[in-house]
Amino acid sequence: MSTHTHRNLVKARNKKNDDFYTQLVDIEQELKHYKNHFKGKVVYCNCDDPKNSNFFHYFSYNFERLGLKKLITTCFKNNQLDLFSREESNTSLKLEYNGDKNNNRVPDIDEIGVNRLKGDGDFRSQECIDILKTADIIVTNPPFSLFREYIQQLIDFNKKFLVLGHQNAISYKEIFTHIKNNKLWLGYDNGGTKWFRVKDHYDIKTETRKKIIDGKKYFSMGNIYWFTNLNHKKRNEDLILYKKYSPEECPKYDNYDAINIDKVVDIPIDYDGYMGVPITFLDKHNIQQFEIIGLSASAGYDKEIVGIPFTGDRDARASVNGKTKYARIIIKKIK
C-alpha cells in the first residue's frame, strides 16, 4: 500500500460515517481454525454495528455449534437499521444474544436483547470497558488509526482476541514489542486480497481498489492481516528451508552484523547468525524454530527494538551497498 493510500485510509477510519465492513466469507475462512477456543466463552465484538455486523451474524448463527455462553456487540454511535444511509443516530446500542430458545437454530429478533448505551459506544469508554471485563474473547475489525491503543487495551485486561489490522501495524514499535514478547502473533489466513464493503458515497480514487458487486461498493485496503493471541496449528509448523547460504544472494548489511534476506523462501538452512527478513516472515514464524531478535524499520536507532548493535554513523535503517531496505525482522535460528 502506498503512503498516500494508507494516509487516506487512516483519515477515513477516524470519520464515524466512513466505516469498512468485513465480508462474512473472510470471517468464516479465519474462524474455522479456532473452534476449540470458544466453548463456554463470552464473545464481545466491540467495534461492530450490531444490526449490520457480519461478526455478529457469524457468531449468532454458529452459537450452538461453537458452544458459546454469550455474544455481545457494541459500536461507535451510528446504529440506524440501514447503516449505509447518511443519517446518524444519537444513540449507541448493545446487542446481547444468549442462544436459541425455540430450537430453530436461528437468532430470531425476539431472542436478541437490545439495550441503549449511555455513552457513544467508543471502545475506550468506561461503559464499554465494563462490558469488556465480562468477556473472554474479543473478535472484531477495530479502527486502524487506533490500532496501537486498541491492542494495548486488550493486553492490559488480559483478554484473548482475534482482530483485523493492516500489515503496516507490524512495524509499530508498540505492536512489534508485543510480537517479540510472544503476546501477539499473526492469525492463520493472511493470504489473498480482502475486500471491505463501504458506503455508496465513499470516494475510492484508485480503480483497481474498487469493485461493485450486486450494486454494493467494495474497497481493497492492501495487505490486511489477522492479529491474535489464540493458538492455531500453523504456529507449530516448521518453515521448510532448502537454500544454502550465499554471500552474493544474502549480503551483509552496511550498518548491522546481519545478512539481508529479500524473500522468506531464501532463508538459508545453514546460517546461524543474525538475519534480516521481510515482515511477511511472521506469517510463517514458528517459535520453536526461530527467535525474533528485533526490528529494523526507522531512522531512529532504538537498541531495545532493533535488538543488535548499530555499526553505522547516521541512518539506522538497514542498508546494503548504500541502498535502504524496507522493514526487516531480525531473527536467529534456535539450535
Structural class by sheet pairing and helices: alpha+beta
Segments where pLDDT lies below 50 for 5+ residues?
A: 1-18, 79-88
> What is the overall number of helices?
8
Radius of gyration, in Å, reads 22 Å
Number of beta-strand segments: 18
Overall average pLDDT: 87
Give a short account of the largest sheet: 8 strands, mixed
Spatial gap, N to C terminus: 36 Å
How many domains?
A: 2
Strand order of the largest sheet: 5-4-3-2-6-7-12-8
What pattern of helices and strands is seen along the backbone?
A: HEHEHHEEEHEHEHEEEEEEEEHEEE
Q: What portion of residues belong to β-strands? A: 15-25%
Task: Classify the helix fraction into a percent range.
Answer: 10-25%
Outline type: elongated
